[in-house]
Amino acid sequence: MGVGFLRGGKIANLEDLGIRYLWLVPLSLLIQLLIFPLFTEQPVIGLATGTFHVLSYVILALFVIANLKVWGFIIMGSGMAANALVIGLNGGYMPSSVPSLLKSGEYEVAYHLTQAGTYGNVIHMNSSTAFEFLGDWLYLPRWIPFSTAFSLGDLLIAVGLVFFFGAGMVKG
Q1: Per-position b or e across 41-59, b if 16+ CB within 10 A of its CB
Q2: pLDDT in tens, 41-59
């Protein structure tokens, strides 16, 4: 949004973009909140985690496809597709690099991955995980607030959001 504000835009201008099926985004988020631990050790729904995770991405894909004409959605969709591919090929989990998690300060996640192999929505990245280059191996250093390991797909989603807000908030 900062880019949109810097360009003299207004949040109200986003209404003019004709975003369709916006309700699919919170539905997908709700599924993920139910299947992954949030502020607890156990998820609300502990069954079929991988299947539900992939389903949440299918729902997001429908949203993106319905809105491809809007600035940034092609880039965001590419990132989501990359994430969905690697998650789908790894049983519904995102491969995550323990060294990257440690460098970002995510010690608890790194510990759980080395002990159990999975934690939340991630799986320990190793020689048996598929398409590791699409997993969470990039990271923000621990001194940056909210630092974490992230994927190329996440980076594309962030770039797409910058384009979306940068162009969408400005009347054209």
Answers
A1: eebeeeeebbebbbbbbeb
A2: 777 887 888 889 889 999 9
CA 77 to chain centroid:
11
- Give this prediction's pTM: 0.88
Q: Is 64 within 8 Å of 76 (Cβ atoms)? A: yes
Task: Give the SS3 label for residue 103.
Answer: helix
Residue type at 34 in one-letter notation:
L
> Distance between CA atoms of 40 and 159, rounded to whole angstroms?
31
What is the Cβ-side half-sphere exposure of residue 156, based on CA atoms within 13 angstroms?
18
pLDDT in tens, 72-95: 999 999 999 999 999 999 998 999
Place of tokens 């539900």: 52
- Rounded to a whole number of angstroms, the CA Rg of the chain reads 17
CB 77 within 8 A of CB 64: yes
Contact between 93 and 99 (Cβ < 8 Å): no
